[in-house]
Write a structure and sequence with these properties.
It is found in: Cytoplasm, Cytosol; Nucleus membrane. By secondary structure, this protein is α+β, with helices and mostly antiparallel strands. Helices cover 19% and strands 34% of the residues.
Length: 86
């Protein structure tokens, strides 16, 4: 198994998350889409994502590629309760 680079997103990915991972954007010759990648191995990327609140859901292999699925629970919305002063 290769140790990097690791693809971490596509052109529609959250730019703040990509910045948190120090990801670089590239377009590989022959592809009609861009992707974000980091030089870190998957283990390091998964550890960083866990610290950001993401949790591992599943993993599969596609050819010689491994794909991890992660999920981050959304924070509940902040509800404003009006003050009632009589």
């Amino acid at each position: 198994m290769e140790s990097g680079p690791t693809v971490v997103g596509d052109e529609l990915s959250d730019i703040y998350l990509m910045a948190s991972l120090a990801a670089n954007k590239r377009q590989v010759l022959g592809n009609n889409f861009s992707e974000y990648y980091v030089d870190d191995p998957p283990r390091v990327v998964l550890n960083k994502l866990e610290k950001l609140g993401y949790r591992f859901v599943s993993m599969t292999g596609v050819g010689q590629t491994l794909v991890w699925c992660l999920h981050k629970q959304e924070d509940p919305p902040i509800r404003c309760i009006p003050n009632s002063y009589d």
